[in-house]
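Entry for GMT complex. Fields follow.
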Amino acid sequence: MKIGIVCYPTFGGSGVVATELGKALADEGHQVHFITYSQPARLDFFSSNLFYHEVSVRDYPLFDYAPYESALASKLVDVVRFEKLDILHVHYAIPHASAAYMAKQILATYGIHIPFVTTLHGTDITLVGKDPTYKPVVTFSINRSDGITTVSQSLKDDTLKHFDITREIKVIPNFIDFQRFSLQPKDHFKKAIAPNNERILIHTSNFRKVKRTMDVIAMFQKILQKVPSKLLMVGDGPERAYDEQLCRDLGIVEHVRFLGKQDAVEEILSVSDLFLMPSESESFGLAALEAMACKVPVISSNSGGLPELNIDGYCGYMSNVGDVEDMANKSIAILENDDVLQQFKENALKRAQDFDLKRVLPMYIDYYESIIENQKVLTS
Ligand code: GMT
C-alpha cells in the first residue's frame, strides 16, 4: 500500500505513535509518506520506503494567524495526486481530520477517490475537541472520516459521550517496539544518579496541567521519608518552572533532577525502578507502556484508559486522581522490598508484551485494507 500519514511532528504521544507506525509499515514493505510541518522527531534516518513532505505556510501581513489547515489540505492534494496514495491516515483530529476531508473533496473533482482514517488520541477529544471553539468541525470531520480509531475503549466511550457520532469506531491500542524499548545495562549511569544505591523514580511527560506533575513531586516527598530515593523528571512544558520551585520549597531539590527533553528515554528508563503517572486524564498512557517495556512498574491514576494498561497489584497500582497519599503508600509498598520490586518489574514486562508492535501492526494493516476495499465498492 501507499499510505500518507499526517501528524504533529513533536515529542507528543500522537506524533510518536504516528511515526513509529509509519516506520513499522515501511519495514513491512509499504510506502509511507509523512505530511507535516517539520521532520517528525523520531524520523531521523534513511529508509527507501519512507518519504517526508513538508507543509510550508506562506505568511502574509494580512494574516494574524497563518492558515495551516488550508496549506495542509493543499499539500495533501498535491501528494496524493502525484504519489498516487491509496489511503490517508491522520493522527489527532484537530485540524488534521478536517484538512483531510477538504483534500478528499478536492481530489474527487480530479476523479481521485481516496479514503482517510482518523485516529483520535486523547486531548483532541477530552480537552480541546469538545470545546465549543472546535466541536462542530471536529464532529463533522470525524463523521466524514472513512475509518475512525481510538487508542482505548475509554477514549471511544468519551468520544461517543461528548460527540454525536454516526459511524463505527474501532479501538486499536498504542503499541511498543521492543527492539528499541527494553532493559539495557546502564550501571555507570545508575551509579551517577543514585551513588548510594537509592531507588530511582521517574516521570516523563510534556509537563502540561493534565499530567499533574505537582502530584509527582508531592508523592515523591512522602516516599523519600520512607525509602532513600531519587526522582528523574524528563521532558519539558509549562508546569516545569513551578515544579522546580516546589522542589526548592519542599527542601528536596538535591534528590530531584530535571533532565529536559531526551531522545534516548529508554536508557533512562533502564535505570529506573518506578514510573509515576498521576494524570488527570490519559487516553492510554504511552509513556507508561514505554516504562513497562523496560521493566519499570507503574504507579498511576485510574483515569481514562489507564486501567486498560496498568493492572492494579500486578505491574503497578492505581489510585484516584489527586490521591497523593495513596499513590505514595503504594509506591513505598513496591519499593521497600527487593523481592516485591523484582516481581513487579517482571510483571511490567509481561504486561507490556500484550502491546507488542508485532501484535498491533496487523490490526492497522487489516483496517486499512478493509477501508480501501469499502472505498472501491462505493466508487465502482
Ligand atoms: O499526553 C499528551 O499530552 C500528548 C498526547 C498527544 O496527543 O500527543 O498524548 C495522547 O496520545 C497518546 C498516544 O495515543 C496517549 O498514549 C496519551 O495517553 C494521550 N494523552 C492524553 O490523553 C492526555
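NOTE: The chain has two domains: 2-175+357-379, 187-355.
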